[in-house]
Amino acid sequence: MNSTLNQSGPWRDLLALVGLAAACRLLFLLAMPRVLDSADAIHYVETAARLASGDFFGYDPKIPIFYPLLGAFASLVFADMEQACRAVSLVASVLTVIPVYLLARDLHGTAPARIAGLIFALWPWLIDYASRVSTEATAVLLWTGGVWLFARGMRRGGAAVAGAAACFFALSLTRPEGLFVLLATAGALPVLCGWRERRAWRRFAAFAGLAALLVIANTFYVRALTGQTTANYRAGFIVEEFAYQRFVQTAVETFSDVIPVMLGPLLFLFLGVGFFQARDRARDPRLEATVLFFAAAQWGLSLFVLSPAPRYLMAPLIVLSMWSACGMHLAAGQIRAWRARPAWLARLPLVAVILFFLGHAAITVGSEHLGRRPREPREYKEAGLWMAANLTPGLIFTRKPQVGFYAGMPSTGPAPDDSLAEALDRARAAGAAYVVVDERYTAAMVPGLRPLLDPAAEHPGLRRLKTFESYPESRVVVYALAPAPDDR
User: Measuring CA to CA, which of 133, 316, 375, 381 is 20 to 30 A from 475?
Assistant: First the structure.
C-alpha cells in the first residue's frame, strides 16, 4: 500500500485511495448485516420509490429530494429500493476521497494529502455511514467537492465555477442547512480573495447567478409541491422547534465532547501539530482560513438541529483531519531529522493512526458476531418479514416504524406517557389490528408498554402471536389486538 501511494502523480494517488476506500467499505458491508435504523431512512426509501414511479408531487416535502432521487436512479440497477439507497451512500462515500485528497493537497501538499486520503479511507465511523440509508455520505461528498471547486474556481475560473454552484445547490437539496452553506459563500469570498480582487468578484457573480437560477427554479417546484413560496421547506420546521437552551447545550457538547471524542487522541494530538508547527512549505493562509470558515459555518448551522450527534459534524471533522494529516507528516519529518534513529520510526505516526482505526473496526465488527445485541435493530426486520409472510395486512401499533416497513403494513404509535390501558385505547381508536412491542426502544421510551414484553403474562384484549428473541436484550413480541367489547 505504501509503495503504491508513493508513486508520483495525483491520479495514481487517487486511484489507490479510491480502491482502498471501496475495499474497506465493501468488506464492512459484507461483515455487518444492515437494516433501516431510523424513521428518516424509511422516508428516504419511500420517497425514492415514489420518484422511481414518476410521482414527483406525492412525497413528503420535508424530505430533501436529491438523495432519494439518486436512489430512484440506482433502482435501475438494484431491484430492492433499500439496497439502491444504500448503494448511493456507498458510492458517494468512496468518491469523497477525491475532493478530500485534492483539497488537502491544495492546503498542505502532496504527502499530507495522501495521509488525509488514508485517514478518510480507513476511518471506521465514515466507513459505517457509507452503508447506511442516510444523507450524510452524499452531503459530505457535495460539501467537500463544493468547497474545493469554489476555492479553485474563484482563483482560477473555468468549469470549477459552475461545478461549485452545482455542488452547493445539490447540497441544498440534500440537507436543510445546505442552502445556508451556499449563502455562506458570499462571506467566504473576501476571506479567500480579499475585497480588491476584481476578477474573483466577477467569477463570483457568475457563480452566484447560476446558483440563483437553480434556487429560483427549485422555489417554483417547491411552490407547486407545497403551495408555499420557499426554497427550503424543511428549514421552517427546524426554526419552529428552536429552543435556546438546547441550542447552547448542543454547542457546548459538540465543541467540548463530540469533536475531541470523534477525532480521538491521535488525530487530536496531530491536529495541534498541523496548526502550529513551522513547516518548510509556504502556507496559504487565505485558503486555510476559507476552508475553516466553511467548517465553522457547517458546525454553526448544525447546532440548529439541537442534537450533538457526530453525524452532523462529518464535514468539519474531515476538514480538521486534514490538519491532523499535515501534523503527522511534520512529525515524521522531525523524526527523520534525528540522528541514530531506526528508519521505520518516521512511519510511526501514520502506523499508530492506522492501527487505532483497525482496532476500532475490529471491535465494531467483532461485537456484531460475538452474541451481543447488534447495533442496528435487526430484530425489527425479522419481526416485520414474519408478519408480512404470516399475517393479514392491518394497521400496526408500535413505537418504531421499521417493523411496519418490513411488514409492508402501515403503523402508528403511542404517546411517551401512555399507560398500558391508554395505549391500547389509542390503538383501538386508530383501528390497529396488531400491537408490537420491543425491548430496544419501547421499554425505555414508553414505560407503560413494558409489561407486554413478558410473553407469559396474560393481557386482556391481546393475543400473543409470536415472540422474537434472536438477539440479547432485543426481544420483540407481536400481539393481535381484539376490538373493545362495545365494538364487537
Answer: 133
- pLDDT tens for 32-64 read 889 998 889 999 999 999 999 999 998 999 999
> What are residue 462's DSSP bridge partners?
481
Question: Which is it for the CA torsion 375, 380, 385, 390, positive or negative?
Answer: positive
Paired strand residues for 468: 476
482: DSSP letter: P
Torsion of CA 185, 190, 195, 197, to 10 degrees: -80
Q: Burial-class residue 45 by CB neighbours within 10 Å (0-12, 13-18, 19+).
A: buried
pLDDT value at 160 more than 60: yes
Number of Cβ within 10 Å of residue 180's Cβ equals 17
Nearest Cα to 405, choosing from 68, 46, 74, 34? Answer: 46
> What is the spatial distance between Cα 169 and Cα 189, in angstroms, rounded to a whole number?
17
Rounded to whole angstroms, the Cα distance separating 193 from 275 reads: 21
Secondary structure (3-state) at 104 = helix
Convert the pLDDT of each residue in 288-300 to its tens digit: 999 999 999 999 9
Taking only the tens place, the pLDDT of each residue in 238-266 is 777 788 888 899 999 998 899 999 999 99
Number of Cβ within a 10 Å radius of residue 159: 10
Nearest to 380 by CA among 399, 352, 365, 362: 399
CA distance 138 to 66: 9
* Per-residue pLDDT band at 12 (split at 50, 70, 90): very high
End-to-end Cα separation, the chain, in angstroms: 71
DSSP string, 426-478: HHHHHT-SEEEEETTTHHHH-GGGGGGG-TTS--TTEEEEEEE-SSTT--EEE
Taking the CA atoms of 27, 31, 35 and 41 in sequence, report the sign of the dihedral they define: negative
Give the whole-angstrom CA distance, residue 4 versus residue 18.
12
